[in-house]
């Protein structure tokens, strides 16, 4: 597969591309009710941070970041179109979302992963914090979290 790029959706057109990916994955493929799939965070590119991953310029994956608590961001609506699965697009997207969250000053990330995706997030350093799966839009999920690793402090040696 070709060149991957991840950007923050800044225009209405880019937001529409994000929503189209979500409709394909969540509504058509997984049967989620469109009435609960779209919410106030999708009103504009400024309502939250929408990320768009393209492959060779074609929209391929998306996710969004909302403020969950003062220092905690929540990753949501992470979706990769079927034809772009298995090439590292999901990993690339989540890593870019994390970088954005850390840059925005968050120190912790939470996400609700569909159970089948739990091992994927574990590989990316997330740990499961819910005692048992719960249903969201009729699909079993687990709550997962990751803390920002502070760089180790190495004082300059005195010369």
TrEMBL record:
Q: Which residues are listed as membrane-spanning?
A: none
Please report the stretch or stretches of sequence annotated as the N-acetyltransferase domain. 5-149
Domain of life per record: Bacteria
Put simply, this protein is called GNAT family N-acetyltransferase
